[in-house]
Design brief:
Strand order of the largest sheet: 2-3-1-4
Largest sheet: 4 strands, antiparallel
Number of helices: 2
Distance between the termini: 24 Å
Mean pLDDT: 87
Strand content: 25-35%
Structural class: alpha+beta
Order of helices and strands: EHEEHE
Amino acid sequence: MHIILVYDIQTDDIGKKILHKVFKICKRYLYRIQNSVFEGELTDSQLYTLKSELKPLIRKDTDSIVIYKVRDAKWVKHEFIGIVEDKTDNFI
């Protein structure tokens, strides 16, 4: 399934450490398309693992993660306004 993940971490002293960890976890599973936005194709088990790694890090009173699930990427259309940076990793 196609996943779009968006996170918002409060950047206080503790949040800076959390932010770095959340970023590293998301980057292992998805492609970064903007500062706090990732997307990509995941299986149900990969999504479960991703969520299980992220949940212990998130402070329920200050931080949030939103995960959008789309059954097929062909239903997702992107429209960028302003600077479009290709932040995806393309290794051959």
